[in-house]
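Notebook, p. 212. Picked up where the previous page left off. The plan for this session was modest: take the two constructs that came back from the sequencing core last week, fold each one, and keep the raw output in the notebook itself so nobody has to go hunting through shared drives later. Recording the first one now, exactly as returned: residue sequence, then the structure token string.
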Amino acid sequence: MNDFEERARALLKEMPLEEKIRQVTADMIFDVDGDYDERRNPLCGSYRNPGHFMHQDKEEPATPGEVAEKINKDVRRSIEAQPHGIPPIENGEALHGAQWGMCTCFPQPIGLASSFDPDLVERAADVIGKECAAAGVRQVFSPVVNLARDCRWGRTVETYGEDVKLSSDMGAAMCRGLQKNGVVATPKHFADNYGAGGRDSNYSETSERTMREVFLPPFKACFDAGAKSVMAAYNAWDGVPCSSNRRLLTEILRGEWGFDGFVVSDYNGVSDIETSHRCAFSPAQAAAMALKAGLDVILPFDSFGAVSEALEKGYLTESELDENVYRVLLAKFRLGLFDEPYRDPGEADKLVRCDNHRKVALEAARESVVLLKNEGVLPLDKDKIKRIGVFGQSAELIPVGSNYSGPYRAPWRGSDAPTPLEALKAFTGEKVEIVKGDSSDIEALAPECDAVFYFTAIAEGEGSDRSDIRLPRVTSRKAEKDAGGFIIDEDSFEIVDDQESSILRLCGANPSTVVVLLNGAPVDMTAWIDKTSAVIEAWYPGEQGAKALAEIIFGATNPSGKLPLCIPKSVGQLPLFYSFKPSGRGYAYCDDDGKPLYPFGYGLSYTAFKADGAELKIRDNKAEVSCLVTNTGRVGGAEVIQLYLSSHLCEVVRPLKELKAYKRVYLESGETKKVTLTLDETDFSYYDAKMNFALHDGHHTLLLGTSSEDIFSSFELAAENGVLRAQ
């Protein structure tokens, strides 16, 4: 038993029952003005940090120092009110930036995943962790490591895409970056968070095998990387709500994986056991079911009454509650909250959105952009281009996206964060005339321009699952209200254009039409993709994203992003992902070949790469694949070499291919580098018919390529009696 464990056990023995109950409860107050101090109960164990709510209806948002002062005051009041001076955990969101104020805003996770660069993501998470800790926010509900295999799911934007390996790497990188700053990472939503049709938080019919092979590994990677908390999902798996699912929260999480952190509910997830799932007859029974199953903190509002009643009526024993409380206390000792509970407001002002942090945001934006199509129009030459037409309402918005960006009821803003229109003007200066038009100007304005750009708009995110994945038309409106996450505002977002029609008209008026997609999930492009000259998948590239886009458009930066999920041709192909299992019938429809419009791992560059000299070496049950990569073009750029595994002659059906390793490599023009990718025996292991995971017998093909469909070399191997050998 280490010192933290000893201190937690010793304190637990001294605590009366009421004080114990308080440690598994939480609170959140939306209005932090007026009589806030009187309404805030200082006895709860966790709080949604007040900084998140300090900016609404303000001409100027609160400064980092002011947020730190507010949180310090709350922490001090709690410590002084507690019988044993137990400090609270101040928590919040940090999906792609610390969400307590106007902190550094990175690309949305789907964009970060497009970098195929875990080191970059860890550096971004390090910035986020520093900015959380600077204000006193010590637990964040991030990262989202649910896989997005049906892009109708509105929360696709929050994920790292469809792939197990990529999502595991990105989630682990985020956890490492956050936790090195004394901030508890809380991967979510444990474990399979949407149902058929991409419906958020709907009942999961996922089998035990698929859960083990697909949806659980990214969480395990996060815990291996040091995450000490996890958030239970809203939905139910195998007939049991995730918030009270002992199979998930105790048997797998703690029993099999050895997780020694604490579990929190999603907001109102415990009350949902009664109200939504109809598995409990009272709040007290729901609370007892959750706590006994292994959930430790009930978010977001005070549940003292429900837990007290559960104890009084015998639904829950004090010894059972002790285990929940111990895990919460252990987390607080690990965080150093007892020893250093306060933050320095002056340091917060110096740190948040400092020059170095914005530089990392710019680098992340540059690597997140994916060039999908280019028929020679890009990059533009600002010495030759005289006039550019800019269309689409997103051209005049900072491209951070509305999902988990900025604090409550206050959009993220920064005077030094440009819109795409502003960034293009700043980049070109006086050399190029940049003209903004709307749909009524297309036929008059577009023919007079050397190139035209259309910046798309879409309403998506939590609470916005879609049945139609085409670009929304005029009259499409999203009236947002507070949802389960209490992040969604009451703001309305209205699309002011028939976007498909405008794109088609632009293509007819000017052959040099470029579509810039600002979105969080794939859209159906079939109506216009063949008519455009270029398409840029920018996702929501964050506060520095517009600057990165301007650089890419004019060739100052070479695009290098790769798709973290397949882009379908139409909604009728969904769900769609590359690593499906073999079928007895094939994969096509009578009117569709079943293939995506763009495959997983795909992305173009302004230069060209050649890979040759591929070799395979097997030693100590590890497979080492290497190749030489040469930049044969005229400009420097980055390529992502990807290694896939295709298994056959196994005891059970295996996916046709799975990403197992990848390497991002930057090369100057004419430069050659050797890339080596190594797989260990775990990469060749699988669950057999009895659900035992091991290096079972089977034949394997290693596929080396630059996307899941662009393969340039392959090797045959076999596993027999626990030994790998080449064939």
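Okay, moving on. Second construct, recorded in the same format:
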Amino acid sequence: MTGVLLLTGCVILLCTLMGRFLDRLAVPSLLIFIALGMFFGEDGLLRIPFNDYNAANVICSVSLIFIMFYGGFGTNLKAARPVVVQSVILSTLGVAGTAGLVAVFAHYALSLPWMESFLIGSVISSTDAASVFNILRSKKLALKYHTDSLLEIESGSNDPISYMLTTVAVGIMGGESVFIPLLLLQQIAIGIAGGLLLGKVAIWCLRRGMFPSEQSQTIFVFAAVILSYALPSAFGGNGYLSAYLCGIYMGSTKLPQKRNMVHFFDVVTDVAQVLIFFLLGLLVTPMELPAVLLPALAVMVFLTFAARPAAVALLMLPFRPTLGQVGVVSWAGLRGVASIVFAIMAVLEGVEMRYNLFNLVFCIVLLSISFQGTLLPRVSAKLSMIDQTADVSKTFNDYQEESDIDFIKVHVDKNHPWSGKSLKELPIPSDLLVVMVARREETIVPNGSTVLLPGDLLVLAARAFEDRENLSLQEIVIEKGHKWRGCSLRQIPTRSNALIVMIKRGNETIIPSGGTTLQTGDTLVIAQSNTTQATA
């Protein structure tokens, strides 16, 4: 266990330290995590043997639950409303059509039996939510005609259909008597009912204030995510569909402390993605990949240039899309972690095939992420589909669902320059709003004619500063014994990319100058550019 924890900690630490660097690479960052897994693996430099398909299946399947939930929870339905119908059609009929076309190709081009061909088509028929989300966010790829929202909903919701088709194929190949319409109806009906019911129960509990702290609320939602998969699965339903719908239901509802929950699951999902891609890279044996490289390349080329474009063009035709939109949606059909997880499930069921299914699908995914993922921004630009005026972040709930407002208090004494003046006389910027005046034991909702008196406490509202890619704010408290205590600002050796912009001293706010002397209890607000953090 010590060795496993040591490896896990090192990998997560390495991935975290590489985060900003990876965002600048042309290739999708998730591809690097696969490469890291292969580097640590038995054919890599560290030669760590790992071939436990059962453990990999459990870890990846659980991680996929949170990826599916967060895919729904983070989707902004208001932004996606114009393309919801297209997204649902692509995530259902599109998946089935892609699976069928790939099956026909594999049967005739690779001379595989029909059921083996259908299994391959089923496993790789869905697009990967983790890869699509990662590229759209990291590359800030805002697309015209709500195409980014379309891709997010499609990739987040099409894994359940691929999972159901894979289950059908594995059952038939295993000799089970499967009545396909009934099985699909059972999976879909129980999955939908379970996800919506658990989402509604979770929201009811959160709104009733049943939890004493924000932490307990988050833990409750964490448990609800697990149950949203487990309960429907126990009754024969599609757990992934349930988790995704539970996420959509909860994400589209106003909840207390929702932003904190989003930030929590954002971290959980990022760790899950890193863990899955690293683990799959560790699981694969690179020396075995050449045996399936040519058939994998053939399937990937057919999938990219024929099957996916044909399904997209046919199904989007009634909505009269532009040629550019069809081209981007076709190209953005990245295969990913879900396909590999479904392949592992099939391998564990003992399905016999001419090619090793895990290695075949792994190569297809690797080629898809490398080729399609790397060129997606370039293809989008070439087809004039990038919207320079839009922000892809707004297609996610966590950027728009709650307004980020901070409240500021201002004490008015008899010497204050605002004392005795009405609010309309004050030079207050338009984006700074006086929302309340506390006067002795009276609370006043002010208007422009409200006159401020000595002793008044003003509460103002303004949009909070958010850390940006190259600019952040941090605080340093000057405690007793601090090396800066008693020093003037001009004596402090701050870095060239750091600037002390404000000092909080008790109830006083000081705009500093070079002669300002720091005292015990002062809180310094430092503006920090680039990636270097100010030190004290």
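Notes on construct two before I forget. The radius of gyration is 28 Å.
Flagging for discussion at group meeting.
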